[in-house]
Model the fold of this input.
Amino acid sequence: MDRQEEIKLIAYQIWEEEGSVHGLDAGHWQRAELIWENHTKQRKSSVDKKPVVGKIDKHKKKNTK
Done:
């Protein structure tokens, strides 16, 4: 899966988790890019090469403090 597709799926997952409210797509996309970039940095330093999709909950818990 390429970068754009992964970010698209992450943004969609954020949209669903936040109640499928329309008009927030730019914010969801920006958050998805940050999640993707953070996960990509982690992947480069570890053996885990799995797609980032599905890892949003783990990221949200870190950033909700």
In short: DSSP finds three helices and no strands in the chain. The first helix runs from residue 3 to 17. The chain has a mean pLDDT of 83.
